[in-house]
Amino acid sequence: MSQREFMEAVDLLNHTGPGTALGELLRRYWVPVMHARDLSDPWAEPVRVKLLNEPLIVFKDTTGRIALLQEFCAHRRASLYFARNEGEDCADGHPGLRCPYHGWKYDVTGQCIDMPNEPANSRFKQHVKLTSYPCVERGGMIWAYMGKPEEMPGLPDLEWAVVPNEHRYVSRRLEKVCFTQAMEGGIDSSHASILHADTALWADYGPLGESDAKQPLMNGDTAPRFFIEPTDYGLLIGARRNTPDGRYYWRITQWLMPWYTFIPRTSADAPISGHAWVPIDDETCWAWSMTYHPDRPLTQAEIDHCESGHGIHVLHIPGTELAAQNESNDYGMNRVFQRHMLSISGIDGVAAQDQAMQESMGPRFEPALESLGSSDSAIVAARRRLIAEARALAEDSTMVPSNLDPQLHRVRSASAVLTTDESWLDATYDQRRALTKYYA
Predict the structure, then answer these.
(1) Cβ neighbours of residue 79 under 8 Å, at least 6 residues apart?
(2) DSSP annotation string for 228-262
(3) Does residue 328 form part of some domain?
(4) Span 285-325, pLDDT tens digits
């Protein structure tokens, strides 16, 4: 790759706004927007959101329809965050958002339906329409489709999104880093036995069986060999470590285009966890964290474990989705803990450790400053996949990106200890299939 090609690839991965190559690719997928519980009231106030570099407003009208609109009124660009959510019992009889500046009103499609400061016989309102994206509620979340209507894929069929609510715990936190750098932390299996080593040695592992680091650390093999299998949905990533008895410990991660990662399950009855890394803009993202069980409700102990900020979840600053351990307090780093205990970071908690490292790298993707090794092969493969598909779509608008078919979403991660002559692909095939009875 020439220097020019390299810089073009870097630029592509750093931009997700409208009209950018990566941004247009990401808009072909359903985008997680917010918790559905935060929009449960039909009279709920509009909520500001920013996704893929677009400032937006999400609201539910009094008939229950959900809308994601551009934030600013088409008249003088006042923010519709201040708008009044009017129901069918209002003066004009139509539900919608009314801008308080001059009273222009919009329905869930973005169509302007009232202009009280224009003459009554004016037809001007018929020619004014805000950008609007369709939204649905699924798996306790609001999802939006921000691409062309005629290219809308089926709804996400990720296993955690189809199980009953009591089987699932979902949280999210703001990360001040581009989504690719955060997502690559979910792909990178080699850091588990180093950054998270204290979790394996000193914690009780918790009711979720979060001992990802224990096996490789106790075996003394912290340098896994990676095996990457391209799939129709993304990448199947096998990280192989040696065991003391001459076998292989396999930690198998799933990466689903464009931003999902699934963490290897630690036992047959343990809950399954994963992430969605969704761009807010080019320097921040939402880190969604999901813990679920396909066959039973989560126990109270498992829920308490999540709510207390253990494992992949964090404690939040009350009333926000900002992690209580953050850059302003050095993520709660304790130098004494770092110096005298087996903690490389001195930071308590898997999620806080991950966020600290990811944000410390800087908000933008800077591959020219990196020195990648063999343990980074999965990260390189994911970058190349995103670049290749974004470029292909930019060159041919009829190109169909990977993982649009909901049937492809029905996969799980896995882990196994196998003999040296066993195929990791064959031996974990059943583990990697999502077969919950809740699929339609």
Answers:
(1) 48, 57, 71, 72, 73
(2) EEE-SSEEEEEEEEE-TTS-EEEEEEEEETTTEEE
(3) yes
(4) 999 999 999 999 999 999 999 998 888 999 999 999 999 99
* Those residues with Cβ within 8 angstroms of residue 162's Cβ, 6 or more apart along the chain or in another chain: 138, 139, 436, 438, 439
CATH (domain of 125): 2.102.10.10
- Name which of 12, 347, 404, 392 is nearest 178 in CA terms: 12
Confidence tier at 342 by pLDDT (50, 70, 90): low
Is 46 a member of any domain? yes
CA 307, CA 297: separation in Å to the nearest integer? Answer: 16
Here the tokens at position 58 are 């999400």
The structural domain count of the chain equals: 2
Give the span between the Cα atoms of 24 and 6, in whole angstroms. Answer: 20
Domain boundary residue, one of 129, 151, 173:
151
Over residues 271-284, the mean pLDDT reads: 96
Domain co-membership, 110 together with 176: no
Q: Please compute the mean of the pLDDT values over residues 246-261 and round it to a whole number.
A: 94
Q: Are 286 and 170 in contact (CB under 8 A)?
A: no
